[in-house]
Amino acid sequence: MNDVEVVVVGAGQAGLSSAHHLRRSGFRPGRDFVVLDRSPRPGGAWQFRWPTLTYGRVHGMHSLPGMELTDADPARPSSEVIGEYFAAYERAFDLRVLRPVRVRAVREAGDGRLRVESDTGTWTTRALINATGTWDRPFVPRVPGRETFAGRQTHTVRYPGPDAFAGERVVVVGGGTSAVQHLLEISRVAAATTWVTRREPVFTEGPFDEDRGRAAVALVEERVRDGLPPRSVVSVTGLPMTEEMRRAREAGVLRRLPMFARITPEGVEWDDGNAVAADSIVWATGFRPVIDHLAPLRLREPGGGIRMTGTEAARDPRVHLVGYGPSASTIGANRAGRTAVRAVRDLLGRSRPGRPEAGRRPERVATRKTAAR
Ligand SMILES: Cc1cc2nc3c(=O)[nH]c(=O)nc-3n(C[C@H](O)[C@H](O)[C@H](O)COP(=O)(O)OP(=O)(O)OC[C@H]3O[C@@H](n4cnc5c(N)ncnc54)[C@H](O)[C@@H]3O)c2cc1C
């Protein structure tokens, strides 16, 4: 059994930002705090994203605090660029992430501490920063007949890239950025594509500036304050219109149909009798927060969500959720890490930051592109 002051679960953007602020506040990695991550490599969920999601197609990726990601080659997969960047970040700040370590349950230890049980060991801690993201909980809506479909069903989480759909009739379901990106690239190689969304998609023009970002975050925050399950930040920001999307719209690729009523072995059907034959259905229908391991703490409200004040769980001030709800974006995760550490410092009576340990503190990380110059 290991005893620490803070356990951070997850080493994506939110977990690393938290670890960074803990370290800056004088908490020693490996002794005062540990970061546990179930992924095999640095990169958080980015390491699993499909190869055609290049760095240039990612919109609004914010660097982690204290070290800029500069001059990345926009043509390289974001999984590689961000995986390398996170690895360099962990090394530079000596964050000593333990992986692969999967946390299975967090429960009361009985002495005011929490007990964090994982597949490789158990920790007791005075505070927990949960930064487990959503990637491990893909969501597919219940639709009658789904199990009868004779073709292939793929969720974004296992999206293999467009080539796997060459010559097929493909139905893409979902109204977010991932759905549109899948649709655009599949439409170039498929025999036919059909786009289906629950709600009418909202395309937004112009830059996604701070005001729009703030308004979107406020919408998600309101739900979390009311103890309701959060909607993703991306779902309230609309779809920023790009040149590529404009061309696809003119070509008819972005013509959207409402959600179908059922799935048959041959395809999908609507109540009005319309039907589309399909070889593949791609579910770009989002994710849900990975919080099952927190179930023993009974943090959920009757509405199904965890009510929060800032990053703090209303039912347990020892628990902070970062990258959850309103902070489920790279910039939100950065800020949430800072907020959570401030609160944890207060909780543990360490409000005056200690002196960070000496360590290499580069301001920028050179990506392969700059290194090759
Ligand atoms: C396809 C896609 C594209 C996106 N594009 C953008 C964008 O362009 N700009 C933007 O700002 N945001 C974007 N986002 C959102 C953004 O990626 C995340 O909100 C942000 O990176 C925050 O990451 P995180 O640290 O919360 O989670 P993650 O990156 O998912 O990291 C969570 C980590 O926790 C680990 N973990 C999970 N469960 C456990 C457990 N039980 N025990 C131990 N470890 C565990 C996981 O293995 C993972 O390493 C995108 C999201 C998706 C799905």
TrEMBL record:
Gene Ontology molecular-function annotations: flavin adenine dinucleotide binding; monooxygenase activity
Pfam families documented for this protein: Pyr_redox_3
Keyword annotations from UniProtKB, A to Z: Monooxygenase, Oxidoreductase
Region (Disordered): 350-373
Keyword Amino-acid biosynthesis appears in the UniProt entry: no
Compositionally skewed regions (Basic and acidic residues) per UniProt: 350-366
Protein name as it appears in the record: SidA/IucD/PvdA family monooxygenase
